[in-house]
Structures are given as C-alpha cells and as structure tokens.
C-alpha cells in the first residue's frame, strides 16, 4: 500500500471528479489547524512564505515563465469568468468552443455573448479535433476555449499544435486544464496559451475551492478587472499608500485575503506530484490506462476513450451480453457499494486512476466489475 494514500476499503478511480488527499496534505492541514489553535496568526509571515512556495510549485506544474504569472483563484469557473467578462470584446466577434464541453466552459461564453453581442460557435469534433476547431475560426474569431482533456471521454487535445496555429491567426487561446494538470506535464508558453485555469481538487490531489489561473504576461493587461480589493493592489499591505494601481503581476486577480488553508493543503499535494516528477506521473497513469484497457476488453467491454489520445480518463461500456438485462446505473451503483469509486459519464463508466495505484488495485476493481456483471 502506498503510504501517502492508505485507503481503507476503496479503490479510488475517480480523480477526474474529486481526488483524495495524500497523507502529507492531511498533515499540513492538521498542523495549520493546530497552529491556529495554539498560536493564532502569530506565524503569518511564514504563511506568506508558504504562499510564495506554492506559487512556485504551481509555476513548475504549468510551465509558466515566472511564479508571478500564476494567480490563486476559487475554481476553474471563476477564472473562466474573469476572462469572459474581462476581454475587450467587439460586437459581432465570435468565440469557438468544442461541442459537449463541461458546462463551465460553455455557460461563461454564452453569458458573455449575450452581454457583449457575440456569437458562440460550438463545434462538433471528429477524428481531427484541432483541425475541426481551426476550420470554425474566421477573421471575427477573438478566442478559442477548450478543455485540454475532455471530462467524459478523456480525449486529449494537441494543445501545442492548436495554440501555435491560433497564435498565427491572432486568436486568443484559453485552456481549461482541470483534467490535465497534475496528470500530465504542461507547458503553457509552449502551447502559446493566453489563459490556463484548473481547480486543484482532481488530479492535483488538493481540496476543492483552490485553483490556479495562468495568464500570459502579454495578455494580462488586456483583461479588464471586475473584482477589486486590497490584496490585488500593487502596494498591498501598505494601507496608507494612496495609490489604487493594480499589481502588475497575476496577483491582480486575487482581490482579497487568500485561501490560506487551501494553499497550505495545495502546497503538500503539489510537492508530492513534483517530487515524483510529472514525467513519471504521466508514465504511470498511461501504464494504468493500458492495463485497464486490456483487462476491460478481455472482459468484453467497449472502450469509449480514444487510445491514441489518452490522458487519465478511461470510459467504457459493458456489452449488452455482459449486462444481461441490468442497467449501467445499476453497475455503477454496485461498483460504488463495492468501494470502486468511479463516475458515469459520456454514456459509460469512467475510471480515472492516478500514478500511485498498484496494478493489483486495478485488477481488484476489474474483478469487482466482473462479479457485478451477470453475463461475465
Ligand atoms: C473540464 C472541466 N472543467 C471544469 C470543471 C469544474 O470546474 P470548477 O473548478 O469551477 O468546479 C470540471 C469538473 O468536473 C471539468 O471536468
């Protein structure tokens, strides 16, 4: 058993929903709580150091040039909203998104379209998703927004190719990286991303309510601010300073007091991922994916996730023979009861393993599935 994840009676295959915390994150939260109990905020100076250290870890995960390019936000949706309601839109412009995105990456653009008189183009993508998206862009396209990895099928886009093509066309690129960061290496400047956002509670193994928002320094000034407070000012903390100038860094997107507890937790989780190394994390997840694919196919399940474009998500559907009259919902429910944490998405059952699993965990999950399926 992995000492960072001493799970009782569960096989956690649900990192694409809400991931578990590693031991060190739990210990960081406990220590922070105890410190508050006994010493109040006496150590605030050190807490600020933890913020700086966490921002540096976030920089490494995103591949940002500087820690100052990364803001802490509440969640992916908040950062998407900052982009949608911050850009200097011109009436008649359009925004391109893939059809069937997670609602967070749809609702903001439709809301902005209504407010600023824009068009949202939802593009059905096929075998070549990047080309399908690029074909939908024209001279009036201001921005393309996509998830780097689809929440339902786990389709991984070639964000490097897409970003470079968009850059040539002068179209801004916004990447919802919540299903990517923490599972795969990322290189924000390499994919010419203007905006990247991700909540930390999935593959980053941290609590809900703390997320990362990267803004390319060139794009930063283009975003009008809609949230204000003392903390986002250039001279934050110098309360007698009359200047109300926003910070030149991404801190301008952090209006008030930070989520100090969440940041302490995130520090623990990111330190584990980065000590492990994102290349190794990626490799382990890919091996788990292939192993599960093999076992599930042998059982007679149809794999709905694209093998050549896999990330951490493997969505599958048992054949009608295997189901033998029981519903997919029933299979899902019984998997939960057996302690196999997973989700129902994209017309199938979604497994999303992380790097720390042992192959035996995956085998046990498939054995549970096989016991549940009447036709197996
Ligand atoms: C692609 C994608 N975007 C966004 C979210 C959630 O956004 P938020 O961090 O605002 O809760 C999810 C959650 O499942 C998701 O899969």
What do you see in this structure?
The protein is of the alpha/beta class and about 375 residues long. The protein has 2 domains: about 10-20 and about 280-370, Aspartate Aminotransferase, domain 1 (Alpha-Beta Complex), CATH 3.90.1150.10; about 25-275, 3-Layer(aba) Sandwich (Aspartate Aminotransferase, domain 2), CATH 3.40.640.10. Helix content is about 40%, strand content about 15%. The strands form 3 sheets. It has a 7-stranded mixed β-sheet, sandwiched between helices. A 4-stranded antiparallel β-sheet has the order 9-10-13-12. A two-stranded parallel sheet has the order 1-11. Helix 9 packs parallel to helix 12 (about 360-370). The two termini are about 30 Å apart. The mean pLDDT is about 95. Pyridoxal-5'-phosphate binds near residues 75, 102, 147 and 176.
CATH H-level name of the largest domain... which superfamily? Type I PLP-dependent aspartate aminotransferase-like (Major domain)
Q: Fill in the CATH topology of the largest domain.
A: Aspartate Aminotransferase, domain 2
The H-and-E topology, N to C, reads as: EHHEHEHEHEHEEEHHHEEHHEEEH
Instruction: Write out the strand line-up for the largest beta sheet, numbering strands in chain order.
Output: 2-8-7-6-5-3-4
What would CATH call the class of the largest domain?
Answer: Alpha Beta
Quote the distance from N terminus to C terminus: 29 Å
Number of helical segments with 4 or more residues? 12
């Amino acid at each position: 058993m992995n000492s960072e994840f001493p799970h009782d009676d569960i096989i956690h295959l649900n990192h694409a929903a809400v991931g578990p915390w590693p031991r060190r994150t739990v210990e960081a939260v406990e220590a922070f709580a105890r410190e508050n109990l006994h010493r109040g905020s006496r150590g605030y100076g050190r807490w600020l150091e933890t913020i700086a250290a966490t921002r540096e870890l976030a920089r490494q995960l995103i591949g940002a040039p500087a820690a100052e390019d990364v803001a802490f936000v509440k969640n992916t949706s908040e950062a998407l909203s900052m982009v949608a309601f911050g850009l200097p839109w011109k009436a008649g412009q359009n925004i391109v998104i893939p059809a069937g995105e997670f609602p967070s990456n749809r609702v903001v653009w439709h809301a902005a379209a209504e407010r600023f008189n824009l068009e949202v183009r939802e593009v059905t993508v096929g075998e070549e998703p990047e080309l399908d998206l690029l074909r939908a862009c024209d001279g009036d396209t201001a921005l393309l927004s996509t998830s780097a990895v689809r929440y339902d099928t786990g389709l991984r886009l070639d964000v490097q190719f897409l970003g470079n093509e968009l850059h040539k066309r002068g179209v801004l690129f916004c990447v919802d990286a919540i299903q990517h960061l923490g599972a795969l290496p990322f290189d924000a400047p390499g994919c010419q991303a203007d905006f990247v956002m991700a909540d930390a509670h999935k593959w980053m193994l941290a609590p809900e309510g703390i997320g990362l928002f990267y803004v390319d320094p060139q794009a930063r000034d283009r975003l009008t601010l809609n949230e204000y407070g003392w903390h986002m000012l250039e001279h934050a903390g110098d309360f007698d300073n009359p200047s109300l100038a926003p910070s030149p860094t991404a801190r301008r997107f952090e209006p008030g007091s930070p989520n100090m507890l969440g940041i302490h937790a995130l520090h623990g989780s990111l330190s584990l991922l980065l000590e492990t190394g994102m290349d190794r994390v990626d490799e382990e997840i890919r091996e788990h994916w292939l192993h599960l694919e093999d076992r599930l196919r042998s059982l007679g399940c149809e794999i709905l996730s694209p093998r050549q474009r896999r990330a951490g998500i493997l969505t599958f559907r048992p054949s009608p023979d295997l189901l033998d009259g029981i519903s997919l919902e029933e299979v899902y429910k019984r998997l939960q009861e057996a302690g196999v944490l997973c989700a129902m998405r994209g017309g199938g059952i979604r497994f999303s393993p992380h790097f720390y699993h042992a192959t035996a965990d995956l085998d046990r999950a498939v054995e549970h599935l096989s016991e549940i399926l009447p036709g197996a």
